[in-house]
Design brief:
Helix content: 40-55%
Shape: elongated
Order of helices and strands: HHEHHEEHHHEEHHEE
Oligomer: single chain
Radius of gyration: 22 Å
Strand content: 5-15%
Length: 222
């Protein structure tokens, strides 16, 4: 499973699963182990019963925090020794969510890409930022699923009655308050890249400045 950021509702569920001390400890242990972890190994490390470890590990799998793999081990002998054992590894690097949904890690990734490109080429930082954002947007797009992509990125798209969408949330809200020109340019390029790789023309993304929402909207998205 990819460790890309999960959809917002999934992150809320994952965060809720961390209300138990055993699950928090198991998540940290599995994350720090460097390899997939078995139930016996986890129980011994935390000093809890195997049944308790198994219950909480499987809950973390259901909540999308861990993932399961099966492998045969040489440690088993006797009846059933040929069956593969269940192991766990992290499905996400960290668990976090905000209300409304924000994606400051995405902004950081785009900006880091832009800085690296600008330093390497000696070119304009602004041009590098636009190119990096457009490329990251293209990575996020999915043909025929643009509204779902917008939701995954935190924009809270709402149909405008004319075949397009208004974007009710700014995923980069705090950054945009102090650096609106930079962040809105990055945001527009990101959305255009996502639109193109989802099968829409880049000019379906148009400016829509105003308080309490994204600085762009989508026209004729269908």
């Amino acid at each position: 499973m990819s460790k890309h950021k999960a959809p917002w509702l999934a992150r809320i569920a994952a965060l809720a699963s961390m209300d138990d001390a055993n699950r928090r400890a198991l998540f940290r242990y599995v994350g720090d182990a460097g390899d997939a972890v078995g139930r016996d190994q986890a129980a011994a490390a935390l000093g809890i019963p195997r049944s308790t470890a198994s219950f909480h590990l499987d809950r973390l799998v259901r909540d999308g925090v861990l993932q399961v793999e099966f492998r045969k081990t040489s440690a088993k002998s006797g009846p059933g020794s040929g069956r593969p054992s269940k192991f766990y590894r992290t499905a996400v690097d960290e668990v976090g969510a905000s209300v409304p949904d924000r994606h400051y890690d995405l902004a950081g990734d785009v900006m880091a890409r832009a800085i690296s490109a600008s330093l390497g080429s000696g070119g304009s930082v602004a041009e590098a930022l636009e190119a990096a954002a457009h490329g990251r947007g293209r990575e996020s797009g999915r043909p025929g699923e643009f509204s779902a992509v917008l939701a995954d990125l935190g924009y809270e798209p709402m149909e405008d009655g004319s075949g397009g969408y208004r974007l009710l949330n700014c995923p980069f809200h705090r950054l945009s308050r102090d650096h609106a020109e930079v962040v809105c340019a990055m945001n527009g390029a990101l959305l255009k890249g996502a639109a193109e790789s989802s099968g829409l023309p880049a000019d379906s993304v148009v400016p829509d400045p105003g308080p309490g929402r994204c600085c762009a909207r989508i026209t004729a998205a269908r």
